[in-house]
Design brief:
Number of domains: 1
Distance between the termini: 25 Å
CATH architecture: Roll
CATH topology: Thiol Ester Dehydrase, Chain A
GO molecular function, one term: 1,4-dihydroxy-2-naphthoyl-CoA thioesterase activity
Pfam families: 4HBT
Largest sheet: 6 strands, antiparallel
Number of strands: 6
Protein name: Thioesterase domain-containing protein
InterPro entries: HotDog_dom_sf, PAAI_dom, Thioestr_dom
Keywords: Hydrolase
Order of helices and strands: HHEEHEEEE
CATH superfamily: Hotdog Thioesterase
Shape: globular
Helix content: 10-25%
CATH class: Alpha Beta
Amino acid sequence: MTTALDFAGLSGLEALRAMFAMPEPPPNIGSFLGMRVERLEEGDVAFSLPTRPEYANPLGTLHGGICATLLDSVMACAVHSRLPAGVGYGTLELKVNYVRAVPADGGLITAAGTTVHVGRSTATAEGRVTDAEGRLVAHGTTTCMIYR
């Protein structure tokens, strides 16, 4: 099984690209939910996710936690993509605004995250989730702690 130590000598962007290029990446929330990489550049990451009936809230629409997880993933990976080898991170704060209900019917949602600031001890990023028609579904910001 692959571990974080296997990527220790790589920059954040190199490690992310190596992980996503593996035929069988290590277990992670993205593979569990069915996230797919759409873009993986320095400071700019996008993932898509097909909605599923199992992701519905009691009202039958997509549970907000799915969008929050998607946003947390793209924003944190955008931060990770800007870090040098041997430097880690963790989400310190996550803020999500929901603007549209999403059917849990198999439609595709896409999240894009970009860094705003990457400093010595903290980094910030912002993200947006859109539906298959390009309409804004949710947006958010994060602060990540940098582990040096």
